[in-house]
Amino acid sequence: MSYDLIIIGAGPAGLTAAIYAKRALLKCLILEKSLAGGKLNKTADVDNYPGFISIKGPELAEKMTEHTKYYEVDWKQEEVSKLEKKGEEFGVSTNEGNTFTGKTIIIASGAIENKLGIKGEREFTNLGVSYCAICDGFLFRGKDVAVVGGGYSALETSLYMSNVASKIYLIHRRTDFRAEKEILATAKSNSKIIFLLNSVVTEIQGNEAVEKIIVNNSTDNKDSELIVNAVFPCIGLSPFSNFAHELGICDQQNYIAIADDCSTKIPGLFAAGDVARANEKKIKQIVTAIAEGAIAAQSAIKYLEKV
C-alpha cells in the first residue's frame, strides 16, 4: 500500500508528526515495533512538560497516543528492517514480511541510553540511577551525586547538577574529555564538581535506593567507596537507525544528520527526535522531540506540494 507519508516510530516526535500530517489531510502510516510513547513508558514522573505539573510517563504516552489516534492514522505494530529509495518513492520493509511505499518518510525511531553494564544499575533505575538530569535532578537537591562519562553530556550534566546537588563526582575512565575546551574549563572551575579520572564505577549499592558506589582507579587498581544518592550515566546513546545505514544518511555515531528543517540529504526523507542530530548541543527532551516532529511534518507537507 502507498502513503503520502510513512512515520517510523511512535515516540513523542513520531506522534506529533502524525497529528500535523493528518491535519494536512495526508495519507499517513505509523510503524512502531513496540509501545507508543517511546521512552515515556519507562519514565516514572514527568515534571517539566507544559500543562502538567506532574504526570506519569506512561500516562502522558497514553494521552499523546489517544490524541494521534483521534485523527485515524493508519497504524501497524511492526519493526522496520529496511528503508530504501525506489525511484521517486521509498520502500519500507518490516520483519513481519510486509512492504509499504511512501512518497515521504519521517524517521523518528528514537535511541536508547548506553548502559554501564554493572551490578546494581538495572535494580536501581528510577531509584537513584537516572539517564536524565533535567528530568530527575531536582529529586537530589542538596545530595551528593555521581556523573559518569567523558563527553559533552557528562560535563553538561555535572554543571546542571551543580545548581541542585551538594557535590558532584564526575567519574571518567580516561584523562582527556571529548568536549569543547570552554565547557571543560567551566566545569573544572566549579568547586562543587570533583573530577575522578582514570576511574570506573564497578558497582552501585543500596537498599531501597542508591546509597553508594564502588569506584576502581585504573592507575593503582584500588577500589574506593563513595556515598552518593544518585548516579547519572552519560556515556552516549545508541540510535535505532540500522535499517537506514545503506542510504548513507547516518554520521559516525549512527545518528541521522539533519538540517534545521529536519531534512536529510535525500529529498523527501526527514528525521526527528533522538535518532536525529543537527548539532552536538541539542538537548534531548520531550518538548524538543515534539518540536522536531512538527517541523519534520511541515517540511514533508511542503515537499509534497512541490512534487
Distance between the termini: 19 Å
Q: Round the Cα radius of gyration to an integer and report it.
A: 21 Å
Order of helices and strands: EHEEEHEEEEEHEHEHEEEEEEEEEH
Overall body shape: elongated
Structural class comes to alpha/beta
Spans of at least 5 consecutive residues with low confidence: none
Description:
With 307 residues, this protein is an alpha/beta fold. It has 6 helices and 20 strands. The protein has helices at 12-23, 57-70, 133-136, 152-161, 181-188, 286-306, and strands spanning 2-8, 28-31, 45-46, 55-56, 74-76, 80-86, 89-94, 99-107, 111-113, 144-148, 167-171, 193-196, 199-206, 210-217, 222-227, 230-233, 237-239, 256-257, 269-271, 276-277. Strands 1, 2, 5, 6, 7, 8 and 19 form a 7-stranded mixed sheet that branches. The protein has a 4-stranded parallel sheet with strand order 12-11-10-16, covered by helices on one side. The protein is elongated and about 60 Å long.
Kindly list the characteristics that best describe this protein:
seven-stranded mixed sheet; alpha/beta; four-stranded parallel sheet; about 300 residues; about 20% helix
